[in-house]
Amino acid sequence: MPPEFRLRYGCNPQQSPACVYMKNGGQLPFQVISSAPGYINLLDALNSWQLVWELKQLTGLPSAASFKHVSPSGAAIAIPLSEILEKIYFVHDMELSPLAIAYARARGADRMSSFGDWVALSDPVDFSTAKLISREVSDGVIAPAYEPEALEILKKKKQGKYVVIQMDPAYQPDLIEVREVFGVTVQQHRNDRLTSPADFSNIVTRNKEIPENAVRDMLIASTTLKYTQSNSVCFAADGQVIGVGAGQQSRVHCTRLAGAKADLWQLRQHPSVLGLPFKPDVKRPDRDNVIDQFLQPDVTDAEKASWSNILMKIPRQLTAAERRAWLDGMSDVVLGSDAFFPFRDSIDRASKSGVKYVVQPGGSNRDEDVIAACDEYGMAMVFSGVRLFHH
């Protein structure tokens, strides 16, 4: 790449000219292999790359992230999919490599938010992963390398306008990062601290049992929070993120948002959803929209009428009691928070979504109230002592 790369425009079309360059005049640490990235594409690419790179370092497994507007919609590592997850992620008809499994999980966590996402992959992109990406609506991908067959598939996506970036996996930035806001320059030591299982040793609740799978999911949740716009809360289970609440001013609103997404992830596995009678050749985004509406308790008659274009017949929605019974089947969920919980309300909300393990920095004046709430629900909570704000 040349020392300076011109962009189409900045965050918005009126913000032009725009470019990307290294402040020391050196070469950029990535190559644009296909098409031309925009300003927001690069923000997503560089943030998401850090996330998947760290997950790979921490777990040793291929990792993937689905990014939208500089926050992850989903992140995951390569753990085999159950038959039900294959169905709700629409990959039951595909043979998936480990890297493709990681992306299927990351993309499938919140398919509504991932529509038009940016893809980040920790490993060289193979044919299987490229085939999966080609089926979904997204803007671009960043990875350390691409197999020739995979690259040919990606170059054809969006009539050749799909952005493909190859990242130098050995690149390490300066320890001091600089940002200019409104003509004012600020700088700080970049957040280069990796999450570690040692961060989870200070268990402050009566329940002291945190099994290996929960430690793994705490690593995933904490690393995801590190690259999520604050305030943020993350729900994780089974080696993947299942709900992110990003950029909220109130912590309980973060928890409610992330919890609602985690609930939808669980409800999408209900037999009534798996059995929805879709018409042949209905596109996946249309299926996602109908499934999302089907699982909402306040659907209007007009919305239901629109389903006739997608479904062969209008189904009966789940009752409140049926929804609650299915959600009560959630278990072993990890809740991560990028800063302390100022009140117990987030714990009360988390208890409705199968949360059994909590990781947060601690340090609130009401820590004892939050600990007591966890004890009431039998949760195990750790104080990591590490705040993970990201702006």
Question: Would you write up a description of this structure?
Answer:
With 391 residues, the chain is an alpha/beta fold. Helix 1 packs antiparallel against helix 6 (212-226), helix 3 (98-108) packs parallel to helix 4 (127-135) and helix 4 (127-135) runs parallel beside helix 5. The chain has a six-stranded mixed beta sheet. A five-stranded mixed beta sheet has the order 12-11-13-14-15, sandwiched between helices. Strand 11 and strand 12 form a beta hairpin. 34% of the residues lie in helices and 21% in strands. It has 13 helices and 15 strands. The protein has three domains: 4-167, Cytidine Deaminase, domain 2, CATH 3.40.140; 191-267 and 327-383, Cytidine Deaminase, domain 2 (3-Layer(aba) Sandwich), CATH 3.40.140; 278-317, no CATH class. The chain is globular.
Summarize this entry quickly.
This protein has helices at 39-59, 83-88, 98-108, 127-135, 148-156, 212-226, 251-267, 271-274, 284-294, 301-306, 320-327, 345-350, 367-377; strands spanning 4-7, 18-21, 30-34, 63-68, 71-77, 117-121, 138-143, 163-167, 176-181, 184-189, 232-237, 240-246, 333-337, 355-360, 380-383. The protein is α/β, with parallel strands linked by helices and 391 residues long. The protein has three domains: 4-167, Cytidine Deaminase, domain 2 (3-Layer(aba) Sandwich); 191-267 and 327-383, Cytidine Deaminase, domain 2, CATH 3.40.140; 278-317, no CATH class.
